[in-house]
Amino acid sequence: MNDSSWGARPTAGYWVPPDQGSGRGAPPAGPAYDAQDALLPSATQPMPIVPDTPAPPQEPMPSAPQPAPAAPQPAPKKSAGRDLGAAIGVGVGLGAVIIASLFIVKAVFIGVIAVAVVVGLWELTSRLEERKAIKAPLVPLAVGGAAMVVAGYVRGPEGAWVAMALTALAVLVWRMTEPPEGYLKDVTAGVFAAFYVPFLATFVALMLTADDGAWRVLTFLLLTVVSDTGAYAVGWRFGKHKLAPRISPGKTREGLLGAVAFAMAAGALCMEFLIDGGTWWQGLLIGLAVAASATLGDLGESMIKRDLGIKDMGTLLPGHGGIMDRLDSLLPTAPVVWLLLVAFVGSG
Description:
Number of helices: 10
Oligomer: single chain
Radius of gyration: 46 Å
Largest sheet: 2 strands, antiparallel
Low-confidence stretches: 1-44
Distance between the termini: 121 Å
Number of strands: 2
């Protein structure tokens, strides 16, 4: 509606009654008033002026900005827990030394075993003294341990047993030169160390005495390493169920299954292609036994380290820890592989 429909605009937008002036009493024509409206008194309420165009719609009040949702945090990546590059480099270097000495001169390999035994004994006795004040005599252990390995290679199982007995006797006598306080725990730890490190390592020397001794030792090393690798790879990728959380929280049942699968496959291949007179099914059994003994050996040393309150036995090998941290699965596996090889293909 516009202003022309109303005729002449009344004063200030109001209608003036007829008694307030001539010429202005006639009501305007228009649809908003009728005859009765013209007779209303002057108190008639004013009619508001309606604008020609509708009012623009009001814009909604801006709402308070909502905080952006927090970006989802990526799941933490699993970590190997060690310097993988250093571990691989050290492992390759040790492997090269072992393979070269094993297939070039057997006597050199016996020397490698003896050195590993002496260093392992030094690490073990040092940690016992530091953490538990147990003073297992190192000198008779080192001399007797090296002699044990040589005696096993030269004289066979009988020589290893004799050397073990003489080493234990030397530990008892050597400790007598000190005060009697703590004698029992010191000599007990000494005899344990003599059995745990050099005596078990002697079975590697016994394997080497066979005609295909180098291949037997290589099979033993390969199966143990493959078992550890399978346990690590499968456990790291798929491990969810803890194997022994109070002893070694990092080990899982899935990792154990990986160790068994990898070791059995490697055992079948090694017995079929490396060992004279061996068959694949014998390799499956040896692989299964290796996976079990290597896992138990690893858990056994983890138990020792937890009792001592340490993570590693030493720091000699970057990415690995100490020598004993690499011998943990090898030492208990050596007599198992030696015995099964003798049972399947003989000692010659």
